[in-house]
Design a protein that fits this description.
mainly alpha; globular
Length: 257
């Protein structure tokens, strides 16, 4: 039995999943948050809960490529302040998945993404000048890191949708393009890898899902290469606008029944 028949996929459905995998690679090396479109495609083609288990290893493959590309640009003080809060969010997300149905999950995540996008736009218009990533060392910076960290851990656990939340945090902290990509690359490689035992324990990852992953992961590589080529041609302002737009699109998609 081949992968398509195992998952009862048509040729067009497999092509849609392959495009979504390519978009994962592109988002990891160019416009973080764009993979919310991939999330929507996977949830439309596959059963919603099962889709999160299939998508997770593909995201990790994209994270590995992003780390190899931007490893010199990570801002580790920010990462260390985020991880404890993210761990709490992952645990909360695991508990939430034990009782929440697909409709509640989609609505909750969509509302959070739109709220984060709105807050980020408001904060950036209100700011007098560029923030410095080192401002996460202040009391307000630490509080913001904790709140975004919990939300990021929660959303990444329940729907692999932590990318837009963390994108909003990094933009609000004043990260420039390469620092943004390097920091988010390490963040999601560590967080997504740590989610594997939780997802497996919930039955979201099994032999069937890994077989489909093996067929789709090859499409992540050309997407990552395309993103690496495109990022050098996107200026900072356009980069920020694309990240916010991708977050809004992903949030709206999750709110649509």
């Amino acid at each position: 039995m081949n992968t398509m028949s195992l998952w009862h996929l048509t040729g067009w459905e497999f092509a849609a999943l392959a495009f979504a995998a390519l978009l994962v690679g592109f988002s990891k090396t160019a416009v973080s948050g764009a993979n919310t479109v991939s999330l929507a495609i996977f949830a439309a083609v596959l059963p919603a809960r099962a889709s999160t288990g299939v998508l997770l290893p593909i995201l990790i493959a994209g994270d590995l490529l992003a780390v190899l590309t931007y490893r010199r640009h990570a801002h580790w003080p920010t990462l260390w302040r985020l991880f404890p809060a993210v761990a709490a969010g992952v645990v909360a997300g695991t508990v939430f998945l034990m009782w929440a149905d697909d409709g509640i999950v989609r609505t909750s995540i969509g509302a959070i993404l739109l709220l984060m996008a709105g807050v980020t736009v408001w904060r950036r218009r209100r700011a007098d000048g560029e923030d410095d990533p080192d401002r996460v060392t202040t009391r307000a910076g630490r509080a913001k890191a904790r709140s975004y960290g919990v939300l990021g851990g929660f959303t990444t656990m329940v729907a692999n949708a932590g990318g837009p939340v963390m994108s909003m945090y990094l933009l609000s902290a004043g990260f420039r393009k390469l620092g943004f990509l390097g920091t988010s690359a390490f963040f999601f490689l560590i967080v997504n890898t740590s989610k594997l035992p939780f997802s497996a324990g919930l039955g979201l990852i099994d032999a069937d899902s890994l077989l489909l992953d093996a067929a789709l992961v090859l499409f992540v590589v050309p997407g990552a290469l395309l993103g690496r080529w495109a990022v050098n041609r996107i200026n900072q302002r356009l980069f920020e606008q694309l990240v916010i737009a991708a977050t809004v699109v992903g949030g709206v998609q999750l709110l649509i029944p």
